Every structure is written in structure tokens, then in C-alpha cells.
Amino acid sequence: MLSRRRHWYFVMMIGCILLFVLAWAVVRLWSVPAAVAMCLVAMVIPPVAAIVANRRGPDDRWWDDPSGDDQSDQWWDELDGKRRH
User: Fold this and answer.
1) Running DSSP on this structure, what letter comes out for residue 80?
2) Of 29, 35, 61, 76, which is most buried by a Cβ count within 10 Å?
3) CA distance 22 to 53
4) What phi-psi label fits residue 48: left (phi over 0), alpha (psi between -120 and 50 degrees) or beta?
5) Model confidence over 61-82: pLDDT tens digits?
């Protein structure tokens, strides 16, 4: 699952870089507004790529991982109704 998210992250970031490079190396020669529009689209891609890369799937069980703080873990286990051994 992580490799699929990593793959999509890199695909999106390569697309972002490609949009920037094409906008100012090629498209600006014909249309500056089109180049600016391409840059605006490319500007939105990195946050979306970060969200995609950090999204948890339904099989990822992150909510019950111990935090490393024993007191906090005991408190959360008590709230969840779990017994620690």
C-alpha cells in the first residue's frame, strides 16, 4: 500500500515539474496567460500529492499503535476499555 502511495506521489510531482518547465520554456512563446494558468495548476499539485502520500488506507491500523508514553498509552487504553497486561 505504501509503494502505491509513493508511486502516485512521484507521478504527481513529476507532472508538476513538467508543467512548470513546459509553461515557461515552450508555452510562454505563444501565450503568457496559458503559461500562467499552467503554473497555477502546477501550484496546486504539491499539496494534493502530500495528501495522497500521507493518506491512510482502510487496512492501515494507526490509531491503536502505542505512542511510547506509558502514562498516555494507559490512559487511552482505559478510555478504550482495553486491559494492559
Assistant:
1) H
2) 35
3) 25
4) alpha
5) 566 666 778 888 788 778 777 7
What is the sign, positive or negative, of the torsion defined by CA atoms of 62, 65, 69, 71?
A: positive
DSSP string, 1-52: -HHHHHHHHHHHHHHHHHHHHHHHHTGGGT-HHHHHHHHHHHHHHHHHHHHH
What's this model's pTM, rounded to 2 decimal places? 0.64
Find where cell 495548476 sits.
Answer: 41
Element (H, E) at 81: none
Give the C-alpha separation, 84 to 74, whole Å: 7
- Three-state DSSP class for residue 63: coil
Answer for the pair 11, 70: CB distance below 8 angstroms, yes or no: no
